[in-house]
Design goal:
It is a multi-pass membrane protein. It comes from Pseudoalteromonas marina. This is TonB-dependent receptor. By secondary structure, the chain is mostly beta strands. It has a single domain, classed as TonB-dependent receptor, beta-barrel domain (Maltoporin, Chain A, Beta Barrel), CATH 2.40.170.20. It is built from 7 helices and 40 strands. It has a 22-stranded antiparallel barrel. It has a 5-stranded mixed beta sheet with strand order 3-8-9-6-7. It has a 3-stranded antiparallel beta sheet with strand order 15-39-38. A hairpin with a 2-residue loop joins strand 13 and strand 14. The two termini are about 40 Å apart.
Length: about 675
């Protein structure tokens, strides 16, 4: 049988290969789909890959700039390195919203399952990744909790093979980045480093980003054993600019540039170490085991809350991932695995000064500590799957059972009092602390997929899967008002997907249609209680394609049409939102890159990125009009080793909002997009 695979997103060089070998198969390897290297086109799922060549061309200052090229993704930037994610979903926000999309680096979750952070991708080294893989739809049968809408896996380069790179980016509004990649290959072993330093003074007043990231990798080969180890360290020092308020205030350049929260900041460090041992056994069997540890801490000034408290959180943990791949015969492969993790986490929220504002806020938001707790979390998860190849048919089936337990210790007085135990006015303090307790959650997540190889280059597929996420520690133990306990169940998502992908003449394409229903959605209701009775429906069509035109011109397209709607009966401001569009869920998103390979080693690209209008509140009474942004890029291969690149973002100087929102307290509020800005890059490789 001839194996083949579709790169859903191709850089120009690959598009030329597709043109020259239009009838040949193109192979792309994925590790996200199965934890081991596999050709993706025959698999019954939707996965997009951003290649190293693309990432180098884009030179993203933020991972959102790269993920614009993935159909179904809609990452909205906040300020600095902050963002809110969306993947086959509305833009996710709230205490546990980060549990909707699982983020990985080299196959290991950036955060422990119960302690995600909505901005956690800034702890991956996406700026210098080898590739970024995006698995769309529930991935819980393999990855467990949090892989509800999909998985984003940042894969760092294998620097142990030798060679290197030295690069610099310099752009508008005080942006600068230095990049270094170097390694040494000793034959059966190797060692290498991948590092970047970013300094960005920012477009808005009193904002800045200082960020350093480094990956170190070591490789050792002995007979049938490959031992690979890695370390990642990141440090972020960010002065943050908050929302601007007022209807369409982002169109006023003076307001858009202002920072009304000049004291806001985020300081975060992360350290991860891992080691993977892979044994090639008899009969093509494979045994893979990865052990890892995490240590993370963050100080975060909550400028958007009354009293502007300071949050300090940290987590330290160890874990193991294991996989045994056994070939029963030439057509049937069995995968067995066991994952485990132990995490110690702590959370402190305190307020140094008295609250300013109304008499109600002054009385109910006290100075002093609001929360102070520790949580020890234990997770274990066995899983199994089988792949059965029958002529042109491939059948995959799998199931994962996961058990998570939290051991929560409250280090303050339980209830909604002040730190010293005295009562707040107006019925009690805003923040409520549960008594020390234990909570546990168990869930099984099955999947079933089938694909049919129509011919050597085209595949039909279908899959049915269940995603879930356990309640996050923040949802269980950071309560408000009269709520003393949160009786929550895991969120559940049932998904069905159909698609076709492959190569036809000069088209590389992937088309998928999905339908998902979510139940037990966790949210904070109008009484400020964390509850579990939300539900929603998600329907969408996604198309990714690359088309090679004459005269060395190629077109890459990624487009989504989707509807995300509430299906639960919830009355807000006298209106039942059942059937309404979920807020911050544009129905149409599209991205087009047109690339022209000129002579004399020069390449030009024109990008058009469109975000359709969307409602900014659940009642669907307020909305954002959407936007389209036009950008240009150029690359010049000056010598064999030296490459120079330039780009202009927002060529037409469009006034737009990266994120639009509406609350009853502030009205319309926005994170403004940058005006026209430029960057020039140079890199020397060897």
């Amino acid at each position: 049988m001839k194996y083949y695979c579709l790169p859903l997103i191709l850089p120009f060089s690959q598009a030329v290969v597709a043109d020259q070998k239009a009838t040949d198969s193109i192979e792309v390897i994925t590790t996200t789909a199965s934890r081991v290297e596999a050709l993706s086109n025959s698999l019954p799922l939707s996965i997009s890959t951003l290649t190293e060549a693309q990432l180098k061309s884009i030179a993203p200052t933020h991972i959102e700039e790269a993920l614009q090229r993935v159909a179904g993704a809609n990452v909205q930037r906040g300020n600095g390195q902050e963002y809110l994610p969306a993947l086959r979903s509305p833009v996710l926000s709230g205490a546990g919203a980060c549990g909707g999309v699982l983020t990985l680096e080299d196959g290991i979750a950036l955060r422990a399952a119960g302690f995600c952070n909505i901005n956690e991708l800034f702890e991956s080294h996406s700026e210098m990744a080898q590739r970024i893989e995006v698995l769309k739809g529930p991935g819980s049968a393999l990855y467990g909790s949090n892989a509800v809408h999909g998985v984003i896996n940042v894969i760092t380069p294998d620097t142990t093979q030798g060679g290197g790179l030295l690069g610099v980016d310099y752009g508008s509004y005080g942006y600068a980045r230095v990049k270094l990649r170097a390694g040494q290959d000793y034959g059966n072993s190797g060692i290498g480093i991948n590092a970047s330093i970013t300094d960005d003074t920012g477009y808005r007043d009193d904002e800045s980003v200082k960020q350093q990231k480094v990956n170190i990798r070591h490789r050792l080969e002995r007979d049938n054993l490959l031992l690979t180890s890695g370390i990642t360290y990141t440090h972020l020092d960010q002065q943050t600019a908050g929302f601007i308020t007022g209807f369409e205030s982002y169109k006023n350049e003076d307001i858009a540039q202002q920072n009304f929260d000049p004291d806001a900041f985020r300081k975060a460090t992360s350290f991860r170490a891992w080691s993977n041992a892979t044994w090639q056994l008899a009969n093509n069997d494979v045994l893979s085991t990865t052990v890892y540890m995490r240590d993370q801490s963050m100080d975060f000034f909550k400028h958007f809350l009354p009293g502007t408290p300071l949050e300090k959180n940290s987590q330290t943990g160890i874990g193991v991932q294991s996989l045994y791949k056994h070939s029963i015969n030439n057509n049937v492969t069995l995968n067995l695995g066991l994952d485990g993790e132990y995490t110690q986490a702590d959370f402190l929220q305190s307020q140094n000064e008295a609250t300013q504002g109304s008499a109600f806020l002054v009385a109910t938001v006290p100075q002093g500590k609001h929360y102070d707790y520790n949580v020890n979390a234990t997770l274990y998860a066995p899983f199994a799957s089988v792949n059965w190849q029958l002529n042109k048919w491939l059948l995959t089936a799998g199931v994962r059972y996961e058990h998570m337990q939290y051991d929560y210790t409250n280090n303050m007085l339980a209830g909604r009092t002040k730190e010293d135990g005295s009562e707040c006015g107006f019925g009690g303090c805003r923040y409520s602390r549960p008594a020390s307790t234990k909570n546990s959650f168990s869930n099984a997540s099955p999947k079933l997929g089938i694909s049919y190889q129509y011919n050597s280059n085209n595949t039909f597929y279908a899959n049915f899967s269940r995603g879930y996420r356990a309640p996050q520690a923040a949802e269980l133990y950071q309560l408000q008002r009269e709520q003393t306990t949160a009786n929550l169940n895991p969120e559940i998502a049932n998904n069905a997907e159909f698609g076709i992908k492959g190569l036809y003449n000069k088209f590389n394409y992937g088309l998928s249609v999905y339908a998902m229903s979510k139940h037990n959605t966790i949210y904070r209701d109008s009484d400020f209680f964390t509850v579990n009775d939300g539900s929603s429906r998600h329907r969408g069509v996604e198309l990714e394609l690359n088309y090679q035109l004459p005269n060395n011109v190629s077109v890459n397209f990624a487009g989504t049409h989707a509807k995300h709607s509430y299906t639960n009966n919830q009355v807000i401001n006298g209106l039942n939102i059942n059937g309404n569009d979920i807020d911050t869920a544009p129905r149409n998103i599209a991205n087009i890159d047109i690339t022209w390979q000129a002579r004399n080693n020069t390449q030009f690209a024109l990008q058009w990125h469109h975000v359709g209008h969307y409602y900014t509140d659940p009642e669907n009474l307020n909305e954002y009009e959407g936007h389209s942004v036009l950008s240009l890029r150029a690359e010049w291969q000056a010598t064999k080793n030296l490459e120079v690149m330039a780009r202009i973002i927002n060529v037409t100087n469009k006034a737009y909002a990266e994120r639009a929102d509406y609350t009853s307290f502030t009205g319309d509020r926005y994170f403004p997009g940058k005006p026209r800005n430029a960057m020039i890059s140079a890199s020397y490789s060897w």
